[in-house]
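User: Hey, my collaborator sent me this sequence without any context and asked if I could get a structure. I don't really work with proteins. Can you help?
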Amino acid sequence: MERLQKVLAHAGVASRRKSEELISMGHVKVNGKVVKEMGIQIGNSDVVEVDGVPIYREEPVYFLLNKPRNMITAVSDDKGRPVVTDLFTNIEQRIYPVGRLDYDTTGALMLTNDGELSQLLMHPKHQIDKTYVVKVKGLVDKKSLNRLEKGIVIEGKKTAPAKAKILSSDRTKDVTMVELTIHEGRNRQVKNMFQVIGHPVEKLKRESYGTLTLDGLQPGEWRELKTFEIYQLRNSAIQEETTK
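Assistant: No problem. I've predicted the 3D structure and written it out in structure-token form, which is a compact way to encode the shape of the chain:
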């Protein structure tokens, strides 16, 4: 579901603010009824009209990107830095990232214009697994892994249980490679978790997002999702919700 003014803006009717004005002035109908409420949520099956003219809603598209380093997870940047949508030069639809990866973090990032699915996947209660490979300073021991798995207190709130395992350790370089799977999406969560246990992150890559993996994708490359992959993501989120 998406807010009505956002649907209008995405359809190219007007800016978000101008769309709000159109709604408040009674120019917009949803399923044949005039709507003046700003916060109303619109689904894919709802028919929206502006001054009696049905708006064109883009066909939903879904992509998986292997995000490279030094790129902003956004559709624009006021500092002029490269953003992930710069890599989709031949895509006509206005896509946006689902969640975010830090500027220096690489790996699996989904982009779409399907606001309903995007919100479903990002909602905390839906628990979409995200697996990271993390290079950290120091030699991580089993006690530290247990702390990660049981939850780390960050800014007064404990993280949800996670899965963690050591992939390799290098005593000479004093670094450890750890695989960590979480389902939350708190800001800089992985980096903060390792910082708390005394192992600062040196390199971070998201290897998978739900059932999506980076197989066959080099940094900066992307592919369109298959129908069954979209179904798996949506179904996974819905199942997590119904088991609560």
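In plain terms: The chain has three domains: 2-54, 62-125+221-242, 129-209. You can pass these tokens on to your collaborator as they are.
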